[in-house]
Amino acid sequence: MDHLRADRPVLVLWSAAAAEPAVPDKSRPRIVIEVKGYGATGSKMTDIIGDLDAIIDAMRRDTYLLFITDGMTWKNRLSDLKKIVDRQNQGKITRIYTTKMREELLEDLKDLKSMIGI
């Protein structure tokens, strides 16, 4: 994702407890992107609920949270996926993407950056 380089401006955070990219930076993020990919089902998929809740609790109200996942293995974890969709329906997650939704993500990022003036 070339558009997510630090000089554009995005900072990639490599902490397990923090969302990965933050725009414009981690001190005052307006767009936060959490990315999770799974090759198998298991407890790690349930752990994302807690990770997302920690990000949601730490976010300011004017911050947009985008969640990207692989989408494939969620078929076996529908109850966990429902919890994530519930958070989107409550307005806590702005949008959920699968890896096949790259163009929608890019368009939404452009729109959000324009909307918030960065």
UniProtKB/TrEMBL annotation:
Gene Ontology molecular function: any one: type II site-specific deoxyribonuclease activity
Record keyword Protein biosynthesis present: no
GO biological process, one term: DNA restriction-modification system
InterPro entries xref list: Restrct_endonuc_II_DpnII-like
Domain Restriction endonuclease type II DpnII-like span(s) in chain numbering: 28-88
Keywords, ordered alphabetically: Endonuclease, Hydrolase, Nuclease
Coiled-coil ranges per UniProt: none
Domain of life of the organism encoding this protein: Bacteria
Protein name: DpnII restriction endonuclease
